[in-house]
Structures are given as structure tokens and as C-alpha cells.
Amino acid sequence: xxxxxxxxxxxxxxxxxxxxxxxxxxxxxxxxxxxxxxxxxxxxxxxxxxxxxxxxxxxxxxxxxxxxxxxxxxxxxxxxxxxxxxxxxxxxxxxxxxxxxxxxxxxxxxxxxxxxxxxxxxxxxxxxxxxxxxxxxxxxxxxxxxxxxxxxxxxxxxxxxxxxxxxxxxxxxxxxxxxxxxxxxxxxxxxxxxxxxxxxxxxxxxxxxxxxxxxxxxxxxxxxxxxxxxxxxxxxxxxxxxxxxxxxxxxxxxxxxxxxxxxxxxxxx
Length: 269
What we know:
By secondary structure, this protein is α/β, with parallel strands linked by helices. It contains eight helices and four strands. About 35% of the residues lie in helices and about 5% in strands.
């Protein structure tokens, strides 16, 4: 696990009995990237104890197509049932790419006129890839980065590479199944999390917050009478020491007071 993730994520795994190795954030091409370290640890596990039958298994959630397939078979049908197919837009972020790819591939052929959008945190290159065909983010310019991976306090979504799961929504012709992407600032993500807690009693994490900011922007652009669907992908319980730590957010210059109105959010479209 990257060492810049909220500590409670690894603490919870440890309570379940796991051994957690926190490693410095770095590029996927580095052998010490957390994905590459996990692959090595899976290969090493049980290697010296072949007689007891123990083996390591590397889930490879970023590249394993079963990730996207699971959402195609389960989450997509669940959304279709719950909405009776009456929706205008689906919007979601991308970490591994499995959720947005699986749901988009399932819903688009079954809901006439449905538009699907990516919600992307600042510093991620995916929004630029969807909107302009090039993987790039201004906040990743040399000398401007706050983190080694993606320049955002949002955890769980945002990348500067294409995963095999995300690539499922990029057609061989070069056409993308997504209709566009919305970049969400850290400031708006923090504000949305506090708005949802104060007004709806929803204690969400950072990736759920950016989904809601993007959903608000799309709803504004379409006007009344439309249905926008997203998923609250994470709980605030996994973000207590960072995203939900008001002192840390204040030190970064972000207000943690619930907005008085949704009009305080940036117009993203």
C-alpha cells in the first residue's frame, strides 16, 4: 500500500490479520511501486514451504479484466433495475477503472440516449485523455507536484496511465464509450463531503465526493427533469486521519465549513 494513504486503511487490514507493507509512492515503472511489490510478495509467499501447500495469489485489480466484468455482471444490472432504465447520465471516477468500465459497457447499449462521464481528481491525466486523447495534467508539470503519484488529496481514484480495465471503454477504432470527463478540484471535493454530511447525513470519502461534485455539474448543465446516477464508492471512515481531518485540510488551505448553498461549487461545464 502507498505510504501516503490514510493510516486507518492499513490498520483495518491488520486487524483482519493481514501483514501490510507501506511503500513510498512512485511510478508504475519503478520496481518498488506498490503494485510491483505486491506481485513480488505473492510470488515469494510459500516459496520456501512448498510441502504445506501455501501459495501466494496476486489479485492484480488494475489489470485483471474480471474486475470490470464483475461490475458488468452485477453493478450495471443493479443500477438498471433500480432506475427502471430511466436515467440520462451516469458519472463515476476511475481508480482501477473496473467500476466505470463495467457499468458503462453494460448500461450504454440498454439505455437509449444515456451519456456516461468520468469524474477525475486534479492531477490525474485521465480527464485529458478522455476529452482530448492525450494523457496529461497541468498539475503534473515538473516542479508543481505535491505527491509522487497524482497531485491530489483524493485517494482511490485518478491515474496517469491507462489500466487494462479502463481500456475496456476505449474502442479499437479510437472512439471512447465515455461522452466526456470532468476534473474536480480538491477544494470542491472537501466542500461536497461536508455538504453531504450536514444536509443529507452521508459520511462519504473523497472519491464519492468527487463523484457528487461531477454529478452536480452535469445536473446544472442539463436543467430540471433529468436523472443523474453515480455511486458513493467510499465511506468517510477510511479517511478520518486525512480527508476528514479538519486541521490538516485547513493547513492545506481548504475550508471545512459546510457550504451554505450548492451555488458555492465551481461551474465545471
